[in-house]
Amino acid sequence: MTQTPATPVDDQVAIVGMACRAPGGVRSPQDLRELTLSRGEAFSAFPTDRGWDLSALSGDQPVANGRGGFLDDAAGFDAGFFGISPREAVAMDPQQRQLLEVSWEALERAAIDPRTLRGTDAGVFVGLHGQDYAVAAHGSRDDLVGHAMTGMSGAVASGRLAYVLGCGGPAVTLDTASSSSLVALHYAVRSLRSGECSLALAGGASVMSTESGFLGYGRQGGLSPSGRPVPFSDDADGTVWGEGVGLLVLERLADARRHGHPVLAVVRGTAVNQDGASDGLTVPSGAAQERVVARALDDAGLRPADVDVVEAHGTGTRVGDPVEVTALRAAYGAGRERPLLLGSVKSHVGHLQAAAGVISVIATVLAIRTGVLPGLRRLGTPTTRADWSGELLEPLARTTDWPDTGRPRRAGVSSFGVSGTNAHVVLEQAAGPGPVDGAQAPDDDRLVPWAVSARTATALQTAVEQLRGAAAGRSRRDVGHTLAVGRATFDHRAMLLAGPQGTVEVARGRVGDGETALLFGGRAAPAGAGRELAERFPVVATALDGVHAHRHSDGGDETATFALQVALYRLWESWGVTPRRVAGSAVGEVAAAHVAGVLSLADATALLEARALLGERPADRAAGPDPELDRFRATFAGLRFAPPRIPVVCGAAGRAATADELADPDRWVPRPGPVADPVAAARVLHADGVETFLEIGPDATASAAVRTALGERVTTVPTLRGGGDEVTSVLTALGRLHVAGTPVDLTAAVGDGRRVELPGYPFEHRTYWPAPGDGGRTGATGHPLLGARDDLAGAGGLLFSGRVPARAHPWIADHRPGGGGATLPVPALVELVLRAADEVGCDRIDDLRAGDPLPVDEHGTVELQTWLGAANAGRRVVTVHSRTAGTGQPGAEGSGWELRARATVSRGAPAAGGDGSDLPDGAVPLTPAALGERLDGAGFGPDLAGLVGAGWELDDDTWVEVTLPPDVDRAGFGLHPALLTAALGAVGRRGDGSEVPARWRDVALHAEGASAVRVRITRTDGSTLRLEAVDVAGAPVLTVGAIELGRGRTVPVPSAVPDAPDRPARPVRRAAALPGASGAGATGVDVVALTGPHRRRGLRMLVRAEAADVLGLSGPDEVLGRARFKEQGFESLTGAELVNRMAARTGLALQPGLVFDHPTPDLLAGHLADELDARDDGPAPDAVPDPAPGPGPEPGSPDDPLDSEIADASLDRLMDIIDAEIGVA
Fold it and tell me: Can you state the angle between helices 556-574 and 538-549, rounded to 10 degrees?
């Protein structure tokens, strides 16, 4: 007989959501379930993209056979989604990044809109252990200053979750080593039970940023030499480290039921204890493990025999497993009629360290819900070091159905830390079917709106595609309800209508900034209008009945139209649409007055009937007796007019009508002629900030007229379209309103439904990992390949020691001339020698000869030594040697030093030439097919070939435009070698195409940091080229007097007689112009010197360009003019840096907190313009005169359509605007 729970039922805690990532491509609980049931495993070779010293991991005794359980995309993160700049993201421990995304996924899987946690007392409990990202980032070339303290702090891992979600409850990070996440669950449960929080996120994360965990534990003999853990087996030889992240969403059970959240399982009991003074600090204590199980059972109010299964810690070690089996036998053995089943998810994914406990909980919840227990992989003979007698315990040798016990399924989960802290949790099947498992809500033939949104247009497309795939077979109402209540709403939106025949997308776009107004048209409604809506929506039927109840006569077409308009308005009102302004024409003006609170329904109906009896009266009718008009006035006098609650705009007056004007009887006398044009009122509304017009009437007449008059600047949404299906029309209008940004209550529009599990947000990843540096050495150069500098004693020269990890430079891995293995492109050696020459004040290469191609293994690292000799008659000799460092895989060996290049360098680079890169008339464009054939022939992969945008030819000249993508790090390079490599690949080859640019003469770099160049390559004879490269502004970047093509050869090491040692300054070069950059340095436009609206526009461009640079974005098109700085990744540090930059650009004295006082780029630019105008004390003599008054908005005002375009313009469009508006590009 089951005991009563120790905690009251109202205080029991439910798991309502789960999300996880684990090795083997596991990105969801379903993925984990499929992996374990398929008896798969998730172990792979050590990662090659984290800068690990793989040779140290191989050694004489390979660590864990070179294998572990690794996340597929540990460095990937959607920083923009969370409003985090790329600069800050690379300074954040990947564990923090993973937790952010997985917390969002967990809430969405619980069908909880994450934004609804803002301002609540929700708590965050996170377990973390390894925090070695700071070691990986040490010496990085990335600018991590200012963000490292928060980005690499374990405490901030939970605090950042609370900050992003807006939670006000406890936020705690716990470190008890491997038991961290289960201990976090324990304290989350305690916090919920005590009322300290109403909802909690609990779990943990583990990402290995360095190889130190493998090295340390491997040397102690704790890692499996086979690279495969086998818990509880006689073949167990050690554990295998893995990575993972998991989070649970927890609520008190009663709250979860009340909110309609899916109850996946119940946490019946938890306990935590410590080994204390055991046999050793790191030696597991069986007695302590037995005690923690007993406490958890006591907390749950259960006997040992009430639990069917234990998901064990089960590391696969020869010491730990027998200790655990013995403890479980003692704790769970009493009174059992059937053996306790023993499993461990570690046999599939490895030991996930701080995330191990929560991944075990997720695996166990899945087993409880499905009734199927995954077996242990490769169990073989159970360990003979433990006592299995008496059938008290049984390891799960194979996938097994959960035993039918006639009571809820229950399981224990154990987790033990090397610190001696132990945790045990008892889980129970939820009573009755959960909302996700129960019968689907019945569907009929009704259309159901499905709202989808995302941060970006590309993410929106992915979300729509995922939804279409996942919704098949589900209740349309359940899907619509879940989307309405369980998803955050973003600016990029789409609306789908789902019906029996499938789904159709009826609206897609990005929300606008303006307000919404209602237009009540004057066209008569056809007979029967609104009948279909009344059958579907009770609020429509009630409104129609209400109008008819106040009718005393037929009232004609106007009363029928009025009834339809009132019913449509009440439908929109029930869906949360609350207009800021209304307007109407003819009968529509009566409806507008009614919804604005001027006339009651009874008085509005009486007015319409009086108008129908009166008939039309010309405004210039001759004076004389008019009995009908007298009767109208008598009726009118009995009506009560209240001041409008919503402004009623009059197009003729050009403003909102006053209360007195609305109560004037002459206003309501019907006049002959056509129905009043709604465009005049729409113009007034648009000038007052309205961008969306919702037409309330039987057709789209007013919408069409307004759209014709105001064009793309506005969104017009007719409720009905006349003659079509009314329900489809109104739901399409709902979708268009929602997409335009009008607040609507989607829950009310969808109706009742259950919360079901749907695909989560499609995060768009960029890779954030510290760029390899120089190890913090004193002579660090900051160059990605050159490395650190050492002065050579006695020789008077310099030695540079660097590395070439192909994994960090995909353009190298993509360079495979002749179809062979990857080799370092010769332009990389040229650029490296130029940078080495900089260290001694030399600014040109007189002559460089490349040796045999330098192979680069994508799994290994090439070591480089660059020797710069002492000066001899003003020249210096440079040599470049290389050797392979091994791949880190067992059996891989390195190589000896080989000479790769020799050069002489000197001072006095010639001035750059003129405009030789300009395209002459007659230059013939190269077709994409021709370019592709040449790049394929050069042995380029897609990443390298993709840098080439266009090419032209004329006689012996070839012009090539090449551009680096935003995610390629060009920091430290003078000119990124990939640009030059790609350009040379686009030149037509002769012979068999195997020639390489083996000798370079008269090389000079004139500008640094270019991300895009146009290169002119001239073939001066059969095997010699001349090269010029310019930036996007046409300024010179690089010139090469001659490039001789050859096959590469071994070059002799030259000798040199040294001059006296010197230390000249490094050459100073200008910065290359970047695509889309604004400001005087890049475009020649000095925004301070501009005046009037041109100054304001220029400042908007400049603020966006500087903001992009501060955040580490690829260009100003990634900065939104009207979005808040905070939402785009700014905080106090980056905000102050932006202000400092703008102060330097404008000469203004600015306060550091300016970005918070003026919280968008456009507002900041406007403030700067005001400050500059005030400093100038009036317009300058050459100011552009203000345009003559006209119907449109003033240039530079918030309503200027050009300014609206600037706010979100692309790079190319920004340049076009500068050219057109200012005359300079």
Answer: 140
